[in-house]
Amino acid sequence: MARKDYDAIVVGSGPNGLSAAITMQRAGLSVLLLEMKETIGGGLRTKELTLPGFKHDVCSAIHPLAAGSPFFRQLPLHQFGLEYIYPEVSAAHPFDDGGAAALFRSVEETAQSLGRDEKQYLKLMRPLVKDWPKLAPDVLGPLHFPDHPVALAQFGLNAITSAKFLANRFVTKEAKGLWGGMCAHSIQPLSNIASSAIGLVLMATGHLRGWPIPKGGSYSIANALASYFVSIGGKIQTNFHVQHLDDLPVSDAVLFDVTPKQLLKIAGQRFSFLYKWQMNRYRYGMGVFKIDWALDDTIPFTADACSKAGTIHLGNTFAEIASAELLTSKGKIAEKPFVLLAQQSVYDASRAPAGRHTAWAYCHVPNGSQVDMTEAIEQQVERFAPGFRERILARHTINTFQMQEYNPNYIGGDINGGVIDITQLYTRPVISLSPYRTSAKGLYICSLSTPPGGGVHGMCGYYAAKRALKDVFDLEEKIGLASG
């Protein structure tokens, strides 16, 4: 029998790889975490991309799902330097008339700000916010018999609808626009079945946990997870590029924080014909074009709510957002794209030199597009913040090709690791009772290409590790999940 170097190996140190490694290590195993780059983090990295002293989040920036993650919340990450900052306004959505809708921590305050849609908003969100703490582990996990079937069914009745259908509950442009911006995070046409799900989740977590900014940058989340992992005996090795199974030390189990395309290259020869066939049919979605700015002052938004928000959705009306997302999904470029913008330095002074600021934004583009969207994005910002361009000191852009080059999990610039539409919501990456288990003994996939999909929450890694512990080691995970 070959000598075993470790009980388990995790390939990839994004939030899911880190979560898988922690779960396995906490179960009493010896775990090695491998990362191909010089630093750990995956989508959780912060760098000086523009000018010295300006710290920019390379990928993810605002973290409602991290703050509300049932897995992260039961880890002592604050003891390892993680501190969240909560903007006065979680998210704002400006309109051409100078006004804006806003998501506040309070359900009631948000509802009141929506005027004639106050009652409809309360009817939609109050029950979900009340039930979310017990629903979160069910919603943010694989398909299984739920612990709270009645509450989940009530959530599902709304979540299964299209964002366009549910928007018809509202009569004001403010409520419709706010809803459209939330649902556009799903990176799919708003007419798709189940495109309401992400909007409901983001709003519920926003009311319960806010939309926080990690102090110092998104890397602080990865650093806290990694530091905790090492503190309980885990080992991390960077600059280790796994291209083939033979590259790995000997272990009983290997968990891959990669998407189907990479996993087939690494271990395809070990998989069954049926498993490879399904993996090859896995679909990737729209990509992103991203800009980071170094600014000499804050963004001069016309609407006061936008100046107080950590996140701003730039898309005007629901109809305009829906049109842009549909056009992009068909492989075309939207003249007025939906833009997600974050202004971390407004609340985190460590992000820029004194008196200066940073901003972060992206829009959706066709998968693999190399069209430069700088002008279109900056026009959208200028539209709602006249004078914005005069405050730009420097910019850094990254297209879909560069995004994939930076992080191989972002195939064609798809930051969700694959389309999360109704056909891939619970069949990520294949149709299986256990989506994390591959057809090869001891090999598992734990990336955002498994349920529940994209976002910084670590739940894919947690559930994959839980499956591997049961299959390979006949162990139950010892952490459990906190209320959402």
Sequence-ordered SSE layout with sheet pairings:
Blueprint: E1 6-11, H1 15-26, E2 31-34, E3 46-47, E4 56-57, H2 64-68, E5 84-85, E6 89-94, E7 100-103, H3 107-112, H4 118-139, H5 149-159, H6 163-167, H7 173-183, H8 197-209, E8 213-214, H9 219-231, E9 235-237, E10 251-256, H10 260-267, H11 273-280, E11 287-295, H12 304-307, E12 309-314, H13 318-329, E13 339-342, E14 357-365, H14 374-384, E15 392-398, H15 400-406, E16 443-445, H16 459-473
Parallel strand pairs: 1-2, 1-10, 2-9, 6-12, 10-16
Antiparallel strand pairs: 3-4, 5-8, 6-7, 11-14, 11-15, 12-13, 13-14
Structural write-up:
- By secondary structure, the chain is an alpha/beta fold.
- It folds into 2 domains: about 5-80 and about 215-280 and about 415-475, 3-Layer(bba) Sandwich (FAD/NAD(P)-binding domain); about 85-210 and about 285-405, Polyamine Oxidase, Chain A, domain 2 (Alpha-Beta Complex).
- It is built from 16 helices and 16 strands.
- It has helices spanning about 15-25, 65-70, 105-110, 120-140, 150-160, 165, 175-185, 195-210, 220-230, 260-265, 275-280, 305, 320-330, 375-385, 400-405, 460-475, and strands at about 5-10, 30-35, 45, 55, 85, 90-95, 100-105, 215, 235, 250-255, 285-295, 310-315, 340, 355-365, 390-400, 445.
- The chain has a 7-stranded mixed beta sheet with strand order 7-6-12-13-14-11-15, sandwiched between helices.
- Helix 4 (about 120-140) packs across helix 8 (about 195-210), helix 7 packs across helix 8 and helix 7 (about 175-185) runs parallel beside helix 13.
